[in-house]
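Q: What does the assembled structure look like for these inputs?
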Amino acid sequence: MTPMDIPSTGLANANASQDWDLVQRCLQGDSMAFADLVRRYERLVFRIAGGFLRDRSEVEDVAQEAFLKAYEALSGFRAGAPFGPWIAQIATRTCYDRLRARQRRGEVAWDDLSLSEQSEARSFAAGRPADDAAAARDLAERALSGLPPKDRQALILADAMGHTAAEVGQMMGCTALAVRLRLHRARRAMRQAAERLLDGIGKTERGDSK
Amino acid sequence: MNTCRAVAREIEKLMGLQPAELPEEVRNHLAACPACDRRLAAARLARGLIAAGTETIAPPPGFADRVRTALATRRVGSRADAETWRPAWGLMPAFAAAVAALVIVYQTGEMPGPTGFLSSEGLSVGEYLVLGSPGPELDDIVTAVLEGGGK
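A:
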């Protein structure tokens, strides 16, 4: 997984003046300028939403909601600031609202997994790539949905998308230290989930599973 | 690298390697050390779960235009709402006066005179509404309304 394409500082500066021109045109009521802004940053917003939500229609829905929220907040956009981190923050918070509304699952348990999910767990443990992407995603969702939403966001943004703690903090609206604490807790929870799954694999291999 | 400590130290690097890519001494150590073998398996499994938890979904063609349309719809909706509500706000004083008149009629049984805003017991309209007062029973009011007239 490559780091997400939030513009780096240099690129952000180069884009910032173009973004600011578009923002000013939007504020004057030019909806085509807003469509141009959407085109510039839609990949970034979809990448963020895809990190937390698995249903395509829900990802599209959240992406649209994030852009509409951005439009409504445009008057507060700071002149010359890069648009990428700003819309990334709005998208992250919109996803957080969705995650928070969901009921968190309990601990992932081997006996609750489908056979294809169990097979994917074996593949991951052996360092092999997933054979069945849908089953792998289902398995991951089972494990990740047990985390508090903010811990999950920090984990995905840092460990799956490659952002630094400072970048994650900017997107989540918290300090880098808070991100590191969340990451520590989330990684520990994922290791514990992995240990439980390994116990399940061992039980099955010994032939004493339920 | 053939010690448990070295495996623990290098685990971030090792878990990114395919089994066949592991250095031979590591493979030999893992074969002989179930604890390190399990530690590496757990790290790989956790990493796999995290990586599989994200999905790269490309924006559909025309997404920007769809957002623009949604924006226009939202603007039209909010303008229509504002236009719907503007006359209602204009009618607010008349509505308030009508409510006050109804309360007074209910309280006194007749159109308000000079002291109509006070009941015979000296209660204000607000006090009256909170505390209640002798007046026509609800059944009497319903009957009067149904029969198309008052007293």
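Residues 111-139 of chain B have pLDDT under 50 and may be disordered.
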